[in-house]
Design a protein that fits this description.
The complex is a heterodimer of chains A (236) and B (306). Chain A is α/β, with parallel strands linked by helices and 236 residues long. Chain A has 6 helices and 6 strands; from the N terminus they run αβαβαβαβαββα. Chain B is built from 9 helices and 12 strands. Chain B has a 7-stranded parallel β-sheet with strand order 3-2-1-4-5-6-10, with helices on both faces. Chain B has a 3-stranded mixed β-sheet with strand order 7-9-11. Classes of the chains: A alpha/beta (236), B alpha/beta (306). The structure holds iron/sulfur cluster.
């Protein structure tokens, strides 16, 4: 691509080489790296890139206990296919302690608390063990993510590294096509954004992509990207 | 062989545990049950044959940690625990989901981390939904009740084990007959109770709805038989009879001559739920109708105390 730097593709987008260089730099400094993945089709691009760079980097799958069985099968398939070092991260709080005052599971009345116990709290414990969290968020996914930077501090002195931040949906699509990456089995059934089963909705034709998750709620993020981050403008 | 039975103190569980305890190859049985139905009959009636092998854990499916501990050194899991359906139970779908769907998911997660080699799940013939012809295992499921939807989602979680663990999913017919831990909300059992004690049976709908059934002795024999039968894991129907609700009443009338019945909402015509018996499986597991349906009912009535 004429004029494109080795590290950044257009204006800001990181190239595979750029990501590799950055990871090698972290490793040269002796930093401990990990990534996390929800194993949706679009998440596979980062996983594939990482598998080309270093397959030993642990890939944490946040197993909330509420995933579709299809997602778990897909996780196992992709792990095998890419030769990943996938780690199943389960909540500390047993399911029967995750009921509300009516005896119903928390996602029926307090999804923020449910996400906290099943995603944020387990990930918080992982953060303490590593120095760099390679995270596949993209700016075009939500306003919260659009405000992020490629490198950003997280709790416990960890660095969040967001290599895909400025990749567009089109670039993701092109990469997936070029490397013939597999597709999450629920996509052909009409799901566009796939998280926990209770909070994921198959879209009707007149719905927007954002409505595929926590439909009806103002909630757009699960806490991983709002709580496990240090927003520099707010730091003293 | 060490076995864990979820719902082991329930209607099917009580009979299954008593049978397993008598099998020489079975060295230990852990009954894992939350006693959600206050039915303590598994624990009563004098020492069972093989009683020294049985251990009880009062626990629930959503106790992720408790399950992991209970599964230590276990080879075979029978997953019978469920929140069961009652006719026209269309309220509070979440409770069915909580236990039958997410509870099963929780058990599967714990089993994945264990030494379990064989997993046996009692699903329901209800997963097929309304049928116009008897459904076989290739008929696409189309559940129509909260209960059946939750059992089918349970199946999907259990099936994930199949590549690593020998996994059996049995889509069981409506179970009937005498067990030490009785259920009188299942249709034939309720009819037998009402016929014997009240001389008047209450019927929902027109009574012409067809249902598939299996006798409690057959299902326990089949489930215990999985331990020995030369059978590959898979999803199998487990039913032995398909009859209409009114057929049940007719048979009972032969046994209880002054019996009346009352149709409380006969403007409702319910769909049929017919399931094809899998003859191959029934043969492998040695289940068949050893006597006529009327004799089954007669045996049942003879177990009632007056
Ligand atoms: S996405 Fe829904 S089910 Fe998953 S952890 Fe959050 S609230 Fe719970």
């Amino acid at each position: 691509m004429p004029g494109a730097s080795k590290v950044f593709l257009f204006w800001r987008q990181m190239t595979v080489e750029g990501i590799r260089d950055q990871i090698y730099q972290y490793q040269a400094k002796g930093l401990r790296l990990f990534t996390s993945s929800s194993f949706q089709s679009h998440s596979l691009v980062l996983l594939h890139i990482l598998s080309r760079i270093d397959r030993t980097i642990p890939v944490y799958f946040i197993n909330t206990g509420y995933h579709f069985p299809e997602t778990l099968q897909f996780r196992d398939y992709v792990t095998e296919l890419f030769g990943l070092n996938t780690v199943d991260l389960k909540p500390e709080v047993p399911r029967f302690m995750q009921r509300d005052a009516s005896g119903n599971l928390l996602f029926t009345s307090d999804p923020d608390h449910c996400c906290y116990l099943n995603k944020t709290q387990p990930m918080d414990a992982v953060l303490r063990e590593y120095d760099v969290w390679i995270n596949g968020v993209r700016a075009d996914q939500s306003a919260v993510r659009a405000a992020m930077k490629t490198e950003q501090p997280a709790p416990y002195g960890t660095i969040r590294f967001h290599p895909m931040l400025d990749w567009t949906a089109k670039m993701i699509w092109q990469y997936r096509k070029e490397y013939n990456l597999p597709t999450h089995p629920l996509e052909e059934k009409g799901y566009v954004s796939i998280g926990c089963e209770p909070c994921t909705r198959r879209l009707d034709p007149d719905m927007q992509e954002r409505e595929a998750r926590w439909y009806g709620l103002k909630k757009v993020e699960c806490g991983l990207h709002t709580e496990l981050i240090v927003n520099e403008s707010k730091t003293p | 062989m060490k076995i864990l039975v979820t719902g082991g103190a329930g209607y099917i569980g009580t009979e299954l545990v008593s049978r397993l305890a008598q099998m020489p190859e079975v060295k230990k049985i852990v009954v894992y049950d939350n006693l959600s139905r206050p039915n303590y009959n598994l624990f009563l009636g004098g020492k069972l044959a093989g009683h020294e092998k049985i251990k009880f854990i009062k626990g629930e499916l959503l106790d992720s940690r408790g399950l992991r501990l209970a599964l230590k050194d276990i080879d075979v899991v029978y997953h019978l625990a469920a929140r069961v359906t009652t006719p026209l139970a269309h309220t509070d779908g979440h409770l069915y989901e909580q236990i039958n769907h997410w509870g099963t998911a929780e058990l599967v997660y714990a089993v994945e981390e264990s030494t379990v080699k064989r997993f046996i799940y009692t699903s329901s013939a209800g997963v097929y939904g309304a049928t116009t012809e008897p459904a076989d295992e290739n008929t696409p499921p189309n559940p129509t009740t909260f209960y059946a939807v939750s059992k089918l989602r349970g199946e999907d979680h259990v099936r994930r084990l199949a590549p690593r663990i020998e996994t059996f999913i049995f889509r069981c017919g409506n179970v009937y007959g005498y067990s030490r831990s009785m259920r009188f909300d299942a249709v034939i059992n309720r009819f037998a109770f009402e016929a014997n004690f009240l001389k008047r049976i209450t019927i929902h709908g027109t009574g012409s709805q067809l249902r598939s059934f299996i006798h409690i002795d057959s299902i326990t024999r089949a489930l215990a038989g999985v331990l020995q039968a030369p059978l590959n894991g898979g999803t199998y129907n487990l039913v032995t009879r398909t009859i209409s609700v009114m057929d049940v009443v007719d048979e009972l009338k032969q046994l209880v001559p002054d019996l009346e019945f009352i149709l409380i909402n006969q403007h409702m015509r319910f769909s049929h739920l017919m399931v094809k018996s899998n003859e191959f499986i029934n043969k492998q597991l040695n289940i068949h109708n050893s006597c006529s349906f009327r004799e089954d009912l007669q045996n049942f009535l003879s177990r009632l105390s007056f």
